[in-house]
């Protein structure tokens, strides 16, 4: 026997002599830690003998024994008893891998969407794998797009991007443009007739008479409270133009002055005159081109607004005017299927016939609204609810599929005579033409549920003879303006262009992301201030991380050792990613997502601050991973359009060059040079140079969109920020400083300067300096002026508090 074999045998003899199994296993584990049993390991008879003593697999805590046991077990012939030593290979030969058990893992969340068809969150399951077919109701283009439009189209853009870029669905998105509609017809006629009225060079005396007569008639006719209120406001505006024109005519002022007053009067009374002219002459407008000019212009403006809001264009855009033949064919088949009827050249949908069918159900979305005549008439349009039109229906709940055209309305040929499409049929025919008999998602505003979407469903299911034209109906919530419904009568009608003059597209989108897509969103100063602060909070984090990443290091220096702080932040990072995924699966809850992102940034900021306070470099790769992830999420949401890996683009999304990478090296050199100059100036006590250095930081660089942040004992942080943002910050700081000063009562002002004064009178006015010496008459005279100025400022502040404007 060799020396090695004898040594092994002695150890195994000792191990075998231990009767208690746990002690024996422990001793074996200690022995096995001294020898190799993996590569080239040959089992001896001693190994086999010890192996046979095991009643079962050893516990995991004895690592070496577990590995040793599995190696022997792997070559053991299971058909024989374990105590048969012949069945164990004790020499080199073919070995088998030990059995492997997969981890249990966690349950995967699935995307759920709030489906208006069930009024519940439902698991989202497209009909065809990852492909998603989606139809969205587009605008009726007869006026400027407003924030109500933005509510729907930004929200759907966010949902679409998340489905496509986060959940990786293949989204096919179709949207329509309604360019044939009662509102368009009426507005087009009004615009045309008003321009004719202007071009006819009517006399100022006649204009005054027309306006005066119109107002008296209109005020008497109007009973709706909102319309009456709006009319009274118009009357006030017109009166401010009426009186000067009347005075100019009566005084026989020069023609130039009368014409100026005349034009002002025309503009102020435009809405009133247009409505009157349409009532009087609307039926005489017959040129179809008049009705296409208006929607073509406003469609162009709508697309510009959507581009400005960074809303993705649809994959397919359908216009009603281009689908009239398809609409006619669609209506014809509904009639052929027995769900429509012809009456006096118009075609109506038979709601009773449809609802009585076992295969169908009318008003799936809002069944409780059936019979709501006000809603139904609004859906039919102002030009389609006259007594003669309503009398053509079999039931008040029936609605027009095809309308016979009256004089003053555009018309197209059909089997039932000259006419035009009804509103609801337009979407059905166009969506059916593109997406077929069933789509995954149909989207629109909350106010479209009944009758528009319920009628769409009925028509389409009557055409296709199915009951699943739409699988998931998504409706965006209402938009209010500072708590009130948006309306021209309340003077709170805000166009998208007006909104973009006050806030950026990103800020508007962040405001939408901070609210549920299906709930009411209040567009107010508070809402926008929250969005602005969120943007600033995220941007500061991105700028700080960029500054850290710019710090010079060698190739190996970027891989830093992880301590407990890094491990904890990384754990929080993955916890937040999991929470964000859960929130997105839960009806795309972007509000919770943004809060989780905010929390992650707060944790990262705390980590950075802790590292800096201990003069340690934060972990570059960890912060880069976190900031890249947050940037990617904001890109998915449409809040960042650029290709930058980290943060918001400098200079806006439309920049073709990367300003930051171009100018930052020069700014870094300037920063280091400035820091060197400041250090020398401090040592030599040259205050003028320090003041120049501060002026560079506070006054000159902000004008260029550059921020230098000085930190005691640390390198200056260099940040590229939007110029307007920096200038606004500077103004806000000045205002805050002024307000803070105004808050101080004059009798407290000098008491805050104990380093200058020691004794004060009953009004808080100083009488002696810090050394107890009485102030001179000249000093008192100067201080009294300061005191009187503070009295005025504080009085102004108290007035602001009373008016509620002190914030």
TrEMBL record:
Residues 124-531 form the tRNA synthetases class I catalytic domain. Residues 82-104 are annotated as: Disordered. Its cofactor is Zn(2+). GO terms for molecular function: ATP binding; cysteine-tRNA ligase activity; metal ion binding. It comes from the Eukaryota. SUPFAM superfamilies: Anticodon-binding domain of a subclass of class I aminoacyl-tRNA synthetases (SSF47323), GST C-terminal domain-like (SSF47616), Nucleotidylyl transferase (SSF52374). The keyword Translocase does not apply. It is an enzyme of class 6 (ligase). One of its GO terms (cellular component) is cytoplasm. Gene3D superfamilies: 1.20.1050.130, HUPs. Keywords: Aminoacyl-tRNA synthetase, ATP-binding, Ligase, Metal-binding, Nucleotide-binding, Protein biosynthesis, Zinc. Its EC number is 6.1.1.16. One of its GO terms (biological process) is cysteinyl-tRNA aminoacylation. It catalyses: tRNA(Cys) + L-cysteine + ATP = L-cysteinyl-tRNA(Cys) + AMP + diphosphate. NCBIfam families: cysS (TIGR00435). Catalyzes the ATP-dependent ligation of cysteine to tRNA(Cys). This is Cysteine--tRNA ligase, cytoplasmic. It comes from Anas zonorhyncha (Eastern spot-billed duck).
């Amino acid at each position: 026997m060799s020396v090695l074999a004898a040594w092994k045998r002695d150890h195994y003899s000792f191990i075998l002599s231990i009767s208690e199994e746990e002690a024996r296993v422990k001793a074996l584990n200690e022995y096995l830690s001294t020898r190799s049993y993996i590569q080239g390991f040959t089992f001896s008879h001693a190994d086999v003998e010890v192996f046979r003593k095991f009643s079962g697999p050893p516990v995991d805590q004895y690592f070496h024994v577990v590995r040793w046991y599995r190696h022997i077990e792997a070559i053991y012939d299971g058909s024989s008893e374990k105590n048969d030593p012949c069945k164990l290979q004790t020499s080199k030969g073919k070995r088998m891998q030990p059995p492997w058990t997969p981890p249990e893992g966690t349950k995967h969340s699935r995307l759920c969407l709030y489906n208006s068809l069930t009024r519940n969150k439902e698991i989202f399951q497209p009909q065809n794998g990852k492909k998603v077919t989606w139809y969205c109701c587009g605008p009726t283009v007869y006026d400027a797009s407003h924030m109500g439009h933005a509510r729907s189209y930004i929200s759907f853009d966010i949902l679409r991007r998340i489905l496509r870029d986060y959940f990786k669905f293949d989204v096919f998105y179709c949207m329509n443009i309604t360019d044939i509609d009662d509102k368009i017809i009426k507005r087009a006629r009004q615009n045309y007739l008003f321009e004719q009225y202007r071009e006819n060079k009517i006399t100022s005396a006649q204009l005054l008479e027309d306006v005066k007569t119109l107002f008296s008639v209109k005020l008497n006719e109007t009973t709706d409270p909102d319309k009456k209120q709006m009319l009274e406001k118009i009357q006030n505006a017109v009166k401010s133009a009426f009186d000067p024109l009347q005075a100019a005519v009566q005084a026989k002022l020069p023609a130039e002055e009368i014409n100026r007053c005349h034009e002002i009067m025309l503009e102020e009374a435009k809405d009133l005159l247009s409505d009157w002219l349409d009532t009087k002459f609307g039926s005489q407008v017959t040129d179809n081109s008049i009705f296409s000019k208006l929607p073509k212009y406003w469609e162009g403006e709508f697309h510009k607004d959507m581009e400005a809001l960074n809303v993705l264009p649809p994959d397919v855009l359908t216009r009603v005017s281009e689908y009239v033949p398809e609409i006619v064919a669609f209506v014809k088949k509904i009639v052929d299927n027995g769900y429509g009827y012809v009456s006096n050249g118009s075609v109506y949908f038979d709601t009773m016939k449809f609802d009585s069918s076992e295969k169908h159900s009318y008003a799936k979305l809002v069944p409780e609204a059936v019979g709501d005549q006000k809603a139904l008439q609004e859906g039919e349009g102002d030009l389609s609810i006259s007594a003669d039109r309503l009398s053509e229906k079999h039931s008040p709940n029936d609605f027009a599929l095809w309308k016979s055209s009256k004089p003053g309305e555009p018309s197209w040929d059909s089997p039932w005579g000259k006419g035009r499409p009804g509103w609801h049929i337009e979407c059905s025919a166009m969506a059916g033409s593109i997406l077929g008999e069933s789509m995954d998602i149909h989207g629109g505003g909350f106010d479209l549920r009944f009758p528009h979407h319920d009628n769409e469903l009925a028509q389409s299911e009557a055409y296709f003879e199915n009951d699943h034209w739409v699988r998931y109906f998504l409706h965006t919530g209402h938009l209010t303006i500072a708590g009130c419904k948006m309306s021209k009568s309340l003077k709170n009608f805000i166009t998208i262009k007006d909104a973009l003059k006050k806030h950026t597209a990103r800020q508007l989108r962040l405001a939408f992301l901070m609210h549920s897509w299906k709930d009411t969103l209040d567009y107010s100063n508070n809402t926008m201030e929250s969005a602005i602060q969120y943007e600033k909070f995220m941007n500061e984090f991105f700028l700080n991380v960029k500054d850290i990443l710019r710090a010079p290091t060698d190739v190996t220096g970027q891989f830093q050792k992880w301590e407990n702080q890094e491990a904890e932040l990384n754990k929080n990072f993955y916890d937040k990613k999991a929470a964000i995924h859960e929130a997105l699966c839960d009806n795309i809850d972007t509000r919770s997502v943004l809060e989780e992102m905010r929390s992650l940034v707060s944790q990262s900021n705390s980590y950075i601050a802790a590292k800096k306070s201990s003069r340690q470099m934060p972990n570059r790769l960890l912060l880069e991973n976190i900031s890249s992830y947050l940037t990617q999420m904001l890109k998915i949401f449409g809040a960042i359009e650029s290709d930058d890996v980290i943060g918001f683009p400098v200079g806006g999304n439309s920049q073709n060059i990367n300003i930051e990478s171009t100018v930052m090296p020069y700014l870094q050199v300037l920063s280091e040079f400035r820091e060197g100059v400041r250090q020398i100036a401090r040592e030599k006590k040259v205050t003028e140079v320090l003041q120049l250095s501060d002026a560079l930081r506070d006054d000159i660089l902000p004008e260029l969109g550059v921020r230098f942040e000085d930190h005691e004992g640390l390198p200056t942080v260099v940040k590229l920020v939007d110029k307007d943002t920096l200038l606004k910050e500077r103004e806000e700081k000045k205002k805050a400083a002024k307000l803070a000063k105004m808050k101080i009562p004059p009798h407290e002002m000098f008491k805050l300067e104990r380093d200058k004064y020691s004794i004060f009178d009953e009004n808080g006015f100083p009488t002696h300096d810090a050394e107890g010496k009485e102030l001179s008459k000249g000093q008192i005279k100067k201080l009294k002026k300061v005191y009187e100025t503070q009295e005025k400022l504080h009085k102004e502040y108290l007035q602001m508090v009373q008016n509620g404007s002190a914030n």
